[in-house]
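Exam revision sheet. Question 4 asks you to relate a sequence to its structure. Input first:
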Amino acid sequence: MQRRYRERAGGVNVTVSGIDKGIDTARSTAEHRELKTELTRFMMSYKFATDEMMTKINILKEEFSSIHDYSPIEHVNFRLKSPEGILKKAVRKGCPLVLDDIRAQIQDIAGIRITCSFISDTYRILDMLTNQQDITVLEVKDYIAAPKPNGYKSLHLIVAIPVFMSDRVEPVTVEIQIRTVAMDFWASLEHKIFYKYQGEVPVDLVTDLKQAADVANRLDVKMERLHDQVVALEPDGRAEPDILSIAGLSQYALPEGFLTAIARARLDDELPERDRA
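Answer key, structure tokens:
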């Protein structure tokens, strides 16, 4: 009887031990799932911030194209750092592996690059973006006015944009680079060279890159001068057809007298009551 009791007791002990282990495993699984959910929301917030900024940029591009028959934006690219890339940068910076710390210390997880035709366009886009009320400008670095020693030129912005999640509003940072086509071509080549040589670029190549940056700058200046000359030759008073052309949509023919009626109504609003017909 005593032996049987000990066997049962031993069996109970084994069972309890198994339950404890199962609880620990369940707790570990639950924590793993929770951390995975947090990281997913973390990454999604940057994806949504990029979507918001891309929408703003595309609106500006289409508005400018429709109103001015010209777009200062040639093309736009965006990217998100991978979790692996974020981890590597956090370790390199000595940033604690806590999502709040990563969000505060690594501000280029989401990145957008805007490529423009001319130098003046880069500043025009900068003004249009920074004047938007829901964009908070955290930092602006003007490497066009003050290039890096290697010749690199670009405008760099760090902005925060509100992202409306299901349960909260999250301010998310996005890095924006604005540069000309020539600057972008040079930067792409420079990146490939530094990647190939793993940062140990021969002195003669560094010198050639700097000279190429100077040539690219002269090209930017000359192309903008030619553009200004062409614009100056366009007549101001040429007749325009009564057609609304909206980027991405069909052209709309205006009803006869529509613009005249709007102009008359606006004039009536501006006149004092006694002067109205």
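Marking note for examiners. Helices lie at 2-68, 83-93, 99-105, 119-130, 181-196, 203-233, 258-270.
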